[in-house]
Amino acid sequence: MALFAGGCVRDELLGRTPDDYDVVTTATPEAISELFRGRTSHVGAHFGVVIVRERGVMVEVATFRTDGSYTDRRRPDAVVFSTPEQDARRRDFTVNALFLDPLGTPNLPRAMGEVIDHVGGIEDLRARVIRAVGDPHARLAEDHLRALRAARLAAKLSFTVEPTTAAAIRQHASELSGVSRERIGEEIRMMLSHPSRAMAAELMRDLALEGPALRLAPPPRGGFALLKGLAPGASLLAALPAYAIDLGVEPTAAGAEQVAAAWRGALCLSNEEQAAIRHAMSALELLEGGFLTLGVARQKRAAQKWMFQEALALACMRDTTRGERLRARLRELEDHAGGIHAPPLIDGDELIRMGLKPGPAFKKLLDALYDAQLEGRISTLDQARAMANAMHPA
Ligand code: ATP
Ligand code: MG
Known about the structure:
Elements: E1 2-5, H1 7-14, E2 21-25, H2 29-35, E3 40-41, E4 49-54, E5 57-63, E6 65-67, E7 79-81, H3 84-89, E8 99-101, E9 114-116, H4 121-127, E10 129-130, H5 136-142, H6 145-157, E11 160-161, H7 163-171, H8 181-193, H9 197-206, H10 210-214, H11 225-229, H12 236-246, H13 253-266, H14 271-287, H15 296-304, H16 308-318, H17 320-335, H18 348-353, H19 360-374, H20 381-391
Parallel strand pairs: 2-5, 10-11
Antiparallel strand pairs: 1-2, 1-8, 3-4, 4-5, 6-7, 8-9
Helix pairs in contact: 6-8, 6-9, 8-12, 12-14, 13-14, 14-16, 15-19, 16-17, 19-20
Bound molecules: adenosine-5'-triphosphate and magnesium ion.
Magnesium ion binds next to loops.
């Protein structure tokens, strides 16, 4: 017997396209490998999971199992092969514990087969609620990451968290500290990468998970206006600074350092993610500070920087009047002398061909030449050469 399981059944029944397909079967990992010889990998074989590659699709195939105890609160210590019902009962939420037998007779509209429900998942799917399978306190005690998963899935599916499950999550919220920071970081990344990010943030606050998950000092305030205002497809890197500011962090160099340090620990933020926060916040500080009083070259150089567009979007959300002025100025810069991203007319190699000696003055000269170009004082290679010669005779 082989059944579809978990998120893909839930998504198919909701008419959504699943991100991936999981299969559970009575076959042992050895039998699965034998059946799909040469097309399997065994990353999770000791947890009873085999990855099967079939016509370009990767499917996780697991043997029906029940999880043993969770001493590290992360992975079960032992896996015992079991029945479909026991396998459903080890899953986190009822709507995630449905099976679909593709060879069975359809018993529900939309399902291409028979839906097997041991835990009341169909009813909860209809009621659009996230409910723990079994006793929510016990299930959270096994793996407290489920608290964050509840918030993420409720947001992603536009469901609510069933009151008893929600109460248990609130009551045990501080126990999130027992979960590895890598896993917490991954959940937060998934929340922020999805168009439902503002709802996920609201649910985290409502479920008292914000403090334990994010470990940020400023008292929470506001209503996630920036997360709400982001484009649905906004990147994680754009969402991170937006979220930090919504949480009450000041968009300054000091604020950026505070978040980067806190989230490096709390969410295992990568160097790139930390840098994105720093860049976005310092660009935002400039946009809300002296940007409009800068000279043309400095404005264009600022606008060339990584995360500038993301910072501009945030500036426009925070103050629409200023946003209009900023956008108008950027349109002017775009139309002025080769635009904002004009490729330099002249480079170091050309200066060397002209007989100039590379040295400390070189970079200054190139900067001055590029400033002149951005300001429209020179616009051809000949003019750049003439200016170089005048400033720095060979
Ligand atoms: P998504 O669509 O966001 O991937 P999903 O439900 O498919 O959601 P996965 O993390 O891919 O979530 O997990 C697949 C299935 O494994 C879940 O549907 C659930 O049945 C089970 N599962 C995953 N994580 C846990 C957990 N921490 N505790 C219990 N069961 C879990
Ligand atoms: Mg999944």
